[in-house]
């Protein structure tokens, strides 16, 4: 029968559901945070890890003893200290065994405990474990009242709340876990570096994070690898949070096939699954996101890791390596988040705070251990004092004992008659007769003196902070000598963020632009060098009413500045242009740049770097010139940037990079030119028009200009295929703004001047016609003549339809590529008409009125 409630007892209780949910969730959160997911900053362990180690310690499964079945250990942990799933406990034990997970394993395993490939460990009934020597150091002082204890889950036993760790395990092995509303992710570190930093902190209590970073250079992962840069490390150590970029170790080796190379991955980033890494590489190869890989093999064995990525013949190893870093976990980031439990609360700790928390805990442990040892020593000293007196009174004591009817009566008699304490009296009764010999008596005296000295030393430790620190210092040095080792992870300077550009070979290309706006890039090797006068090779296929207006040489990583005739500038990387075959038309600029319908590109300038004091020289068709710093064009929006101001009706003719202390030579379509000092044009900003460089006749316009010295050679090219080389010293130096002198005699036979180029004997010249034909001619084969001469025939033009030269560009000499060497072997007789000169072998000097004849 139920007992009735008192009359005044409340029948129901009203609570706020919001408050109840908040309280219940907070209790649950704190239980997960403190009791399961986060490590304690003092011993660096989570509760389940601590219980596994303590249970093994209690079972006597220690270094040097026989291994025990994992199942037996797991059962003991569950039954006594951790009443949760056996899988969770076994997984914890497995993690404490794995050398690729922990920098310093705490359990020595025998059997299959998984692999870096992500293989699962064998069942607990098959594996065996025991503690490592380092784990024993974590629990060596448990029986000396060094830490607090608490009841286990059913209050039948007691377990330590924290282990009396002699090593800062939170840093040595790191920790990871996800709690409620927070997480921790601390990487492992090198024991030598951490203990040296701890010693420095003892000697310099005010040491900063920067000071300690001279000892702890960065994480030291069990799988080795490379850390890129120190910025992430410094942020992590100062704030407790940071991103550390890890990278595997990759070497380039010659393949077993003599004509190939291969990449050999010897180390991978921490916590990266090797099997999944290989699968990811294979997947990228199948999807053609990474090309030029012929085979992937895992040749890893007990001697170490070795993943072989065999490359195809045409592959560039550095490019493939960068692709692997960018597209696979071979380069990963470790999110440093140093959250741990400090005084029962989660805190984010810097490097110095982590070591200070451990050092404070270590002081407390050593103090409690010293107090325990002092108490034990005093108890022993007290007994030894009684034994010494008893030896001197041995006859009287023996007589008293013989008279006593029982041990209790004898003990009481010793206390009352000789003033011994209860402990001393019991020790005297336990004394064996052999201790009365001279040798044994001397041993008692020696132990008495030894214990007296021990008490004095223990009291000195407790009386002095420096003495206490010296004890910790000496013990730390012993541990350093015993467990210290070298780093496995190398820290290298950061190469900067790995961008798609790093995956593209910085190879030379030929860039072509047509009048209708079609642009492309093609490998430099597609055009072979020919003799002058040859018919050339088709460089691009264009529409009937289109022609090429620009061709230039640039490398893949160059920045191309597109200056338009309206005075604006746009930018693209060379590798962003469409790569096309030699005869392809390319892609329209409108799909790449935000050009207006009436805007055309007047100049394309390849720029390697925007740093320095380089100046850009702008020239317009009306003869206005200005200088502006190249750095002002480093940041160009997608919609372009105003490059120069133009007056009504004027257009931009050309832009080039101007070097200091140089002279300019400006040429016009009508064959006039002027040479003057570039310093006559003062530098101005972007939003300026400039000054007049040459005075033009009404029907003339500027076609191009070059910066020159007295020793330079100029190549002059005309519409009808004529060209010549001219010494620049033939052009007298003038003031800017004059009419200038003749650079070429313009006739219906030669056509107008279309280009001037500064050339050397080792340059090749690419001449482009409006039908898309390109011929490459060695500069040395073009005759040097006077200013007024018409020159020699560079290319044979077609009469149907009338073909003209639209531009010319320089291609510096270089070693021929295999493709070019092959193409050069092809006969050229079918494609060349030979040289076209005067019958007597002399060049036409053109202008009969010229004051200089050659």
From TrEMBL:
Compartment(s) of residence: Cytoplasm
UniProt keyword terms in alphabetical order: ATP-binding, Cytoplasm, DNA-binding, Isomerase, Nucleotide-binding, Topoisomerase
Cytoplasm in keyword set: yes
Positions of region (Disordered): 816-854
GO MF entries: ATP binding; DNA binding; DNA negative supercoiling activity
Any one GO BP annotation for this protein: DNA-templated DNA replication
Gene3D superfamilies per the UniProt record, alphabetical: 3.30.1360.40, DNA gyrase/topoisomerase IV, subunit A, C-terminal, Topoisomerase II, domain 5, Topoisomerase, domain 3
One cellular-component annotation, GO: DNA topoisomerase type II (double strand cut, ATP-hydrolyzing) complex
Motif (GyrA-box): 530-536
UniProt miscellaneous comment: Few gyrases are as efficient as E.coli at forming negative supercoils. Not all organisms have 2 type II topoisomerases; in organisms with a single type II topoisomerase this enzyme also has to decatenate newly replicated chromosomes.
Family per record: Belongs to the type II topoisomerase GyrA/ParC subunit family.
Protein role: A type II topoisomerase that negatively supercoils closed circular double-stranded (ds) DNA in an ATP-dependent manner to modulate DNA topology and maintain chromosomes in an underwound state. Negative supercoiling favors strand separation, and DNA replication, transcription, recombination and repair, all of which involve strand separation. Also able to catalyze the interconversion of other topological isomers of dsDNA rings, including catenanes and knotted rings. Type II topoisomerases break and join 2 DNA strands simultaneously in an ATP-dependent manner.
Protein name per Swiss-Prot or TrEMBL: DNA gyrase subunit A
Source organism (scientific name): Leptospirillum ferrodiazotrophum
Gene (name only): gyrA
């Amino acid at each position: 029968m139920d007992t009735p409630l008192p009359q005044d007892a409340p029948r129901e209780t009203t609570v706020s559901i919001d408050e109840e949910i908040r309280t219940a969730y907070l209790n649950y959160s704190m239980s997960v945070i403190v009791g399961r997911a986060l490590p304690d900053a003092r011993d660096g362990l989570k509760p389940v890890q601590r219980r596994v180690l303590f249970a093994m310690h209690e079972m006597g499964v220690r270094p040097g003893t026989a291994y025990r079945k994992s199942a037996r250990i797991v059962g003991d942990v569950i039954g006594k200290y951790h009443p949760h799933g056996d899988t969770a406990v076994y997984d914890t034990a497995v993690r404490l065994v794995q050398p690729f997970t922990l920098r310093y394993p705490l359990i020595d395993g025998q059997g299959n405990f998984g692999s870096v490939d992500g293989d699962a460990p064998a069942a607990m009934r098959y594996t065996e474990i025991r503690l490592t020597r380092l784990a024993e150091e974590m629990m060596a002082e448990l029986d000396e009242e060094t830490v607090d204890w608490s009841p286990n889950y059913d209050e039948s036993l007691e377990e330590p709340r924290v282990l009396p760790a002699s090593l800062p395990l939170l840093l040595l092995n790191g920790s990871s876990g996800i709690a409620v509303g927070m997480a921790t992710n601390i990487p492992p570190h090198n024991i030598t570096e951490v203990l040296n930093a701890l010693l420095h902190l003892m000697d310099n209590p005010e040491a900063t994070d920067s000071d300690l970073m001279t000892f702890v250079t960065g994480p030291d992962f069990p799988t080795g690898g490379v850390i890129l840069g120190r910025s992430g490390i410094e942020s992590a150590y100062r704030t407790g949070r940071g991103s550390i970029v890890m990278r595997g170790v990759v070497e380039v080796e010659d393949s077993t096939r003599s004509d190939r190379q291969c990449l050999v991955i010897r180390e991978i980033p921490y916590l990266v699954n090797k099997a999944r890494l290989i699968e990811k590489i294979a997947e990228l190869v199948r999807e053609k996101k990474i090309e030029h890989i012929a085979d992937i093999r895992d040749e890893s064995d007990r001697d170490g890791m070795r993943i072989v990525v065999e490359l195809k013949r045409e592959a560039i190893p550095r490019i493939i390596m960068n692709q692997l870093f960018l597209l696979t976990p071979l380069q990963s980031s470790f999110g440093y988040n140093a959250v741990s439990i400090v005084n029962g609360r989660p805190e984010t700790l810097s490097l110095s705070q982590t070591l200070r928390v451990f050092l404070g805990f270590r002081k407390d442990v050593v103090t409690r251990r010293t107090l325990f040892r002092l108490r034990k020593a005093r108890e022993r000293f007290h007994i030894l004092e009684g034994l010494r007196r008893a030896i001197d009174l041995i006859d009287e004591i023996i007589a008293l004992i013989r008279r006593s009817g029982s041990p209790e009566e004898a003990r009481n008699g010793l206390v009352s008659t000789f003033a011994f304490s209860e402990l001393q009296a019991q020790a005297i009764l336990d004394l064996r007769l052999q201790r009365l010999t001279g040798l044994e008596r001397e041993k008692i005296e020696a132990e008495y003196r030894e214990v007296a000295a021990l008490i004095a030393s223990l009291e000195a430790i407790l009386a002095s902070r420096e003495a206490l620190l010296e004890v910790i210092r000496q013990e730390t040095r012993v541990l350093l000598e015993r467990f210290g080792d070298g780093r496995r992870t190398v820290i290298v300077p950061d190469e900067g963020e790995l961008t798609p550009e790093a995956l593209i070979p910085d190879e030379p290309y030929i860039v072509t632009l047509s009048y209708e706006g079609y642009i492309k890039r093609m490998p430099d090797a597609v055009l072979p060098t020919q003799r002058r006068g040859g018919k050339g090779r088709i460089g691009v296929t264009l529409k009937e009413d289109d022609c090429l207006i620009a061709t230039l040489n640039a490398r893949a990583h160059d920045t191309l500045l597109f200056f338009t005739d309206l005075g604006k500038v746009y930018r693209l990387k060379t590798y962003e242009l469409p790569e096309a075959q030699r005869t392809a038309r390319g892609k329209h600029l409108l799909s790449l740049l935000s050009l207006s319908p009436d805007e055309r590109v007047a100049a394309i300038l390849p720029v390697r770097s925007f740093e320095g004091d380089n100046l850009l020289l702008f020239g317009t068709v009306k003869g206005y010139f200005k200088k502006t710093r190249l750095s002002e064009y480093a940041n160009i929006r997608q919609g372009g940037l105003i490059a120069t101001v133009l007056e009504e009706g004027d257009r931009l003719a050309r832009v080039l990079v101007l070097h200091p202390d140089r002279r300019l030579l400006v040429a016009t379509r009508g064959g006039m030119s002027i040479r003057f000092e570039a310093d006559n044009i003062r530098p101005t900003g972007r939003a300026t028009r400039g000054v007049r460089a040459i005075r033009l006749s009404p029907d003339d316009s500027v076609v191009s200009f070059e910066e020159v010295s007295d020793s330079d050679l100029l190549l002059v090219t005309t519409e009808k295929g004529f060209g010549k080389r001219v010494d620049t010293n033939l052009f007298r130096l003038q003031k800017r703004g004059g009419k200038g002198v003749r650079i070429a005699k313009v006739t219906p036979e030669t056509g107008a001047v279309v280009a001037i180029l500064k050339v050397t004997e080792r340059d090749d010249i690419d001449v482009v016609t409006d039908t898309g034909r390109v011929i490459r001619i060695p500069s040395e084969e073009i005759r040097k003549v006077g200013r007024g001469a018409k020159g020699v025939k560079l290319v044979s033009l077609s009469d149907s339809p009338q073909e003209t030269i639209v531009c010319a560009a320089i291609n510096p000499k270089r070693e021929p590529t295999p493709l070019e060497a092959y193409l050069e072997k092809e006969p050229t007789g079918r494609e060349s008409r030979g040289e076209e000169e005067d019958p007597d072998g002399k060049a036409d000097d053109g202008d009969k009125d010229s004051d200089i004849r050659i």
